[in-house]
Amino acid sequence: MINKFMIILVTCGALLLPACASNTALEHYAQGDIYSEEGKWDEAIVEYERAVELDPELIDAHDKLAVAYSNRGWAYNEEEQWDLAISDLSKAIELKPDLAEAYNNRGWAYNEKEQWDLAIFDLDKAIELDPNLAVAYKNLAVAYNERGRAYDVKKKWELAIADLDKAIELDPAMAEAYNNRGWAYDGKQQYDVAIIDLDKAIELDPAMAEAYSNRGWAYIGKKQYNRAITDLDKAIELDPELAVAYINRGLAYYYKNMKVEAIADFKKVLEVTDDPELTAVAKKYIAIMGGSSTP
Fold first, then answer.
1. C-alpha 294, offset from chain centre
2. Are 194 and 215 in contact (CB under 8 A)?
3. Strand, coil or helix: what is 146?
4. Inter-axis angle of helices 116-129 and 100-112, to 10 degrees?
5. What does pLDDT average to over the chain?
6. Position 108 confidence tier, pLDDT thresholds 50, 70, 90
7. C-beta pairs of 262-267 under 8 Å, 24+ apart in sequence
8. Is 198 in contact with 214 (CB distance < 8 Å)?
9. How far apart are CA 258 and CA 248, in angstroms?
10. Which CATH number fits domain 207-295: 1.10.150.120, 1.25.40.10, 3.60.20.10, 2.60.15.10?
11. Looking at domain 23-97, does it have CATH number 3.50.50.60?
């Protein structure tokens, strides 16, 4: 009788093992939820991974694990640890390819790493998956704006304008995008169009020194030197270290044949920046006017 009883116990125990394992998985899953609520992403990930390991069919645990990786990636973004963020967000997307927030968060990280093409790809995907994800539209606008600014720096004006059109379409209140597009129109010598954009940038952000400087340059292009100097005075008031504003004001003074003022501005450029392009322009005009580039 004892042997038969023991056999029955062993058999019952064997039958109960899967249920026990499942319960253990659910316990880890529940603990993962607790940690998630507390924002303890490292601990949550450990618990969800354990739940999945014990019960690979526990679909909710897979989903929660993806969200935990996404949230930890978001936390790394907040700490400006972009590579760690991208690693976690890539894992989240691997686990749950339809997780819009993970694409958004990875797009944010790529924005900060100035990898604009990757950012735009991810943010487009986030919006495709969730057209109501407002933050993704904002981040996408930033990506187009920053890529447009990069094209400005490279003097690729048409590419810049195309990107900045898109940024403004996505976020019509983005002052920086109007400034950057105005800069591109300045580069194309379309000064009237540039001024419209730069007026809008200043309306949206009256403290944007670059917009005043860029509008000053547009007025120089239109040979309205007094209006240019007024804008450039304002740009320098707002940002006394803005070297390009001194360059632009120096040029306005130069065209007005105000050599003393022009030389003073070009010498100021040499004080506030070591940018080779700007310092070369300053030294060139100081030499033209017979001044010395040394103190």
1. 40
2. yes
3. helix
4. 160
5. 88
6. very high
7. 262/289, 263/289, 263/291, 266/291, 266/293, 267/291, 267/293, 267/295
8. yes
9. 14
10. 1.25.40.10
11. no
